[in-house]
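Two proteins, back to back. First:
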Amino acid sequence: MHRVLTLSTSPDSGNIIGETMNQTSLLAEYGSSIIRVEKALSALQNGLGIMLLDDESRENEGDLIFSAEHITSSQMALMIRECSGIVCLCLTEERANQLEIQPMVKNNNSANQTAFTVSIEAKKGVSTGVSAQDRVTTVKTAIAPYAKPSDLARPGHVFPLRAKAEGVFGRRGHTEGTVDLMTLAGLEPVGLLCELTNPDGTMAKTLEIITFAKLHNMPVLTVDDIVLYRSQVNQEGRKQSIQL
C-alpha cells in the first residue's frame, strides 16, 4: 500500500497550508512531550512500532522503530518496504563489545557522528541474509543472552549502531533515542530503526511522517521529548510529580 499525503492549498497563493508550521505545532495533537513518550513506551511494550523524529535543525528525519526482542518478519518487511532499506540495530556499547562488533571506520568524520559498525549476518538459519525473515534471524541471533562473536558473519545485511552510554544526554540522535526508549519501556536495550522515505525516494519530513503514523496507528515523538522525559524521572525510573 502506497502512502498518500493530502494537503490543502491556499486558493490565493497556491502554497501548501502548513508549510511554515513547525514540528512543535504539528505534533501538538499527540499531547505533551511526556504524554508522547508514555504512548511510545506503551506501544513498544506491546510489540508495536513508533515514529521518532530528531530536531528540525539536525537531520530533520523520522525513523520507524521497533523493539528488537519483539520484531516480526512482517514488521521487518514494513521497514524494508517503506523506509530507506538500511535497517539498523541499535546496541549499547556493552553489547557491541560482547559481540566484538567493531566500528566501520577508525576515524568517524560523518556530520552527525552516526556510530556505524561493520554490518552483520547470522551464520546459521539464513539464506542470502537479505530477506525480511533472514534479517529477523540475524537480529535474534545478535540479541540472544549468550550470543558470541562467532555466531555472526561479517559483513552482512543488518547494520549495527553503537549508542552513546549517556543516551540522549550524550548525543541527541535516533540511535540513542531508540536505546533509551527500550530501557524506559523495561525492554532489552536493543532496538531497530530505519529512516522513513516518501514513495519517490526522498526523505519523509514531519507532515509525511505524521500521515504515515496515522495510517499505521503509531505514536509519534521527538528526541527532545525523550530528553525532557528522562530529566523528569528519578534514578528508580519513576516519574516525578509533573504537570502534563
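And the second protein:
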Amino acid sequence: MAAIQDRESEFQVIIIEPFYGGSHKTFVDTFACNLEENGTKYNIVTLPAKKWHWRARCSALQLYSKIEHVELKSKGLLWCSSVLNLAELLGLRPDFGKCRKIVYFHENQLIYPIQQIKKRDIQYALNEITTCLASDLVLFNSEFNRTSFLDNISKIIKMIPDNRPKNVRDIIEMKSRVMYFPVMFPKLVPTTATKPVVLQIVWPHRWEFDKDPNEFFEVMMELKKGNMDFRISVLGEQFTDVPQVFEQMKSDSDLKDRFTHFGYVESKDDYYKILRNSHVAVSTAKHEFFGVSMLEATYCGCLPLLPNRLVYPEIYPGGCLYNDRKELIGKLKAYCECPQKAVDDRQNLCIDFEKYSAEALSSKYLEILNE
C-alpha cells in the first residue's frame, strides 16, 4: 500500500518514490530531513520496495489512486526517482504538469546487465527516456551514470522500427547534471589500534544479481584453496529475488567456517561496528552508479578493492582498482599474508568524503529547489 506523509496542508514539494527501500529510501529520508530543517513544506508518497520490475512498469498507475487528494500548486515542485514513469503520471494527473519536475537517477537501465540471454526488453529504458523528456531537470548521482545514459540513448532509439524521434540525447543532455548522493556518514568513535592477526573481509552490497555475488564467493574459494587465512562478513539488504548462491554458501560450502557475519544488519550502529572491525571491503559489481555501501565502508576504515570500471574510477584512486579476477586475488592474498598492510594502505588512502556528505551537499540541493 502506498504511504503518504503530510507536512502541512499546503506544501511546496512532493517527493514520489515508487521503490522505497535501500539507497532510494535513504535518499528520500535524507532529502526530507533537509527540507524539514530548511522549513520547506513537503509531502512524501511512496510504495514498498518490492518487485522492482513491476514498480518500473506500473507505479504511475498504482500511485494514481493514492494521490487523488494531493494538490500541487504551480509554484510547487515534483521530485521523483527514475523508477517512476513520469510521463505516464502526468498523463493521469495533467494538473501536475504546471509545476517544476525533477527526476533523480540512482541507476539507469540503458546499460543494465542481462541475467538471461534473451531479446532485450527495452521498455524500462524507453520509460526512463520519456521520463527525462517530461521533466524540467534530470539529476544523476555520478558522472558515470549521466554519461552512460546519454551515450546509449541513440542505441535504444535505433531499435524503434520507424518514425524515430530526433535530437533526444541533445534535449536531455541540456537539462541534465550531476548531484552526488548525499551520504550520512557516521560519527567515528576512537578505537585502540591493535595489530590485526587475521584479515577481515566485508561484502556490504544488496543481495542481487547485478552485484555479482557468485564472483565474490568464487574469489573467496580461491583464497581458501590457497590456504589463506581470512574471515568474511556478508552484509547488505535483501529484496524479493535473492540469488541462490547466498543460501548455498551459508548452508553448504567450504566457506562456512570463514563467516563471522552473514545477513542484513538492521541496526546502523551494529552495521558500522562491523565495518570498523573489517580491513578490506570488496566489490565485484557488474552494475554500479554510485555505491553508498562501499563509501561507508571506506569511511569506516576499510580499504576498498573495486573493479576498474563503472563509477569506481570516478571516486577511488587507481591503487584501489583491479582489472580482473587474477589481480583481485593477488591483492587479497598479499593482505591475507600481512593484514597490517591493508591497514597501512587504508591510512595512506586519500578520498574527499566531503564531496559526498549529506551535510556538505544539503545547501546545493536546496539551491536546486530555488532555481
